[in-house]
Amino acid sequence: MSAHDLSVRETALTLLRGGMPNAEVARRLDVPVGTVGWWRHEDRKHRGEPYTRPADCPICTDRPFDHRAYAYLLGLYLGDGHIVSKHKQHHLSIFCDATQTGLIDAAEDAMHRVMPQQKTGRRRQRGCVEVKSYAHHWPCLFPQHGPGKKHDRQITLESWQQDIVDAHPWEFVRGLIHSDGCRTTNWTVRNGKRYEYPRYFFTNKSDDIRGLLTDTLTRLGVRWTVLKRDGDPFNVSVARKECVALMDRHVGPKH
Hints:
- The chain is α+β, with helices and mostly antiparallel strands.
- Among the domains are: 6-47; 58-148, Roll (Endonuclease I-creI), CATH 3.10.28.
- The chain has helices spanning 6-17, 22-29, 33-47, 58-61, 67-80, 101-114, 138-141, 159-167, 169-180, 207-219, 241-250, and strands at residues 81-86, 89-97, 120-125, 128-134, 181-190, 193-203, 225-229, 232-238.
- The strands form two sheets. A four-stranded antiparallel sheet has the order 1-2-4-3. A four-stranded antiparallel sheet has the order 5-6-8-7.
- The longest helix is centred in the N-terminal third of the chain and has 15 residues, at 33-47.
């Protein structure tokens, strides 16, 4: 069957006008997908039909999306992420330690689950890997995006974001810890003996972002304290044995 057969083209256009995706039409008719795309373009042009690029944005289209993955990605974004905006282009970037390959994979997987149609990529920089995804609608998903550093402006969640965090609080906490947090082993000396104990830290200059973490931890029953650094309360600490065990169960160290 020739890809240039007029009957094949007419069949393809009938299917395309009925809403069938290019790839499915190409598969059914055994025609290259690029040829099907060209036929669709020429057909729209001939009929004077305006073309609007389909949006994959769940906020603009009410498309269902993976809320669990979004809660994790939101935590990563608030910690070590940002959106770069240029003319007709936006991309979400999450910066990960180059040695933590599990975190890199998890960040990329979360992007795919939230925006499945968008391609992701990785760019290695000195000591880190930038995981990025190009999509015009990333600012819709992260309305906290704005000029300047996050700790220099107010950071609050929209009601729909808070609903997702309330439904998946541990995923949100995990994203925050995996971005700007860590699990460490501290030690102290008592009665001449050295004692070691695990502790979780979260360090962020934004009062609002730290507040989002501590509010969520409180709702989860996790006891936390604030440790000052050079007089500033940048560090949130979780050190009580039962709370660390709870964090280990749901968060765990970065890897």
